[in-house]
Write a structure and sequence with these properties.
With 244 residues, this protein is of the alpha+beta class. It has a 5-stranded antiparallel beta sheet with strand order 4-3-7-6-5. A two-stranded antiparallel sheet has the order 1-2. Strand 6 and strand 7 form a beta hairpin. The longest helix is centred in the middle third of the chain and has 17 residues. It starts with a helix and ends with a helix.
């Protein structure tokens, strides 16, 4: 990747977090304002960035449209859409859909539950496979060589006391997930969150993604979420049949 293209993608990712001024963007990359200004102008002309009246730069509508089109073209997201929303209406908490794309597991859809607390997850962002329910159930269903590929660059950071900090520890749980067909995230990335998750496979048995039901623990702990397990598994089975 050329340096110009790399910097452009880094600017877009930075602005996706929140709108920023020219000075903030220049300071982030430790370069002169004139250099960043030229790059922002190029991105603005392409419709990828917009310069707001308050002086901040923000993500442009063109890149939003491209991202939405890419999401809409994902068969799993399109086929699972109605099932996802129906499941959320029954369980009342947040439902996530993730897909295995090349060397990443990525959130491709999400229906928020009620309440004021919002989860860190964002559609289009990659999942930490070792510290999320959807990530672990996908890993558990993969051949070992493919699993090695997804975990090759993992930094075994302890986000909470429950996070797996070694491959050996994770492999023990993955074996348990394979045996029972579903998994959990027991406060492994955020200590106030938990979820149950199940894989989604096609007719050949190849895992394509995963579906999860998540909640803050004070609303629904793991025991409460597990009461929805039959509904979760039935939903993933219907999605799998629809995939053909």
């Amino acid at each position: 990747m050329s340096q110009t293209v790399q910097r452009a993608t880094e600017i877009i990712e930075l602005l996706a977090e929140r709108p920023r001024t020219l000075a903030e963007v220049a300071a982030h990359f430790a370069v002169h304002r004139s250099t960043v200004f030229r790059q922002l102008q190029t991105l603005e002309r392409a419709g990828f960035v917009v310069h707001r009246s308050d002086g901040h730069y923000d993500i442009g509508t063109r890149i939003i449209a491209i991202a939405q089109q890419a999401l809409d073209n994902l068969d799993l997201r399109r086929i699972a859409r109605d099932e996802l929303r129906a499941l959320q209406s029954r369980v009342g908490t947040t439902v996530h859909l993730a897909q295995l794309l090349e060397r990443s597991v990525v959130y491709i859809d999400k229906v928020e539950g009620g309440g004021s607390v919002r989860m860190y997850s964002r559609i289009g962002l990659p999942v930490l496979p070792q510290a999320t329910g959807v990530g672990k159930v996908i890993l558990a269903a993969l051949p070992e060589s493919r699993r090695d590929e997804l975990l090759a660059d993992t930094e075994w950071t302890a986000f909470t006391a429950a996070t797996h900090t070694s491959r050996a520890s994770l492999d023990v749980e993955l074996a348990e997930i394979r045996a029972r067909g579903w998994g959990v995230d027991d406060s492994e990335f955020e200590d106030f969150m938990n979820c149950i998750a199940a894989p989604i496979s096609n007719s050949t048995g190849t895992v394509l993604g995963a579906l999860s039901i998540s909640s803050i623990k004070v609303v629904s702990d793991l025991d409460a979420l597990k009461r929805h397990l039959p509904d979760l598994l039935a939903t993933t089975e219907r999605i799998a049949r629809a995939l053909g």
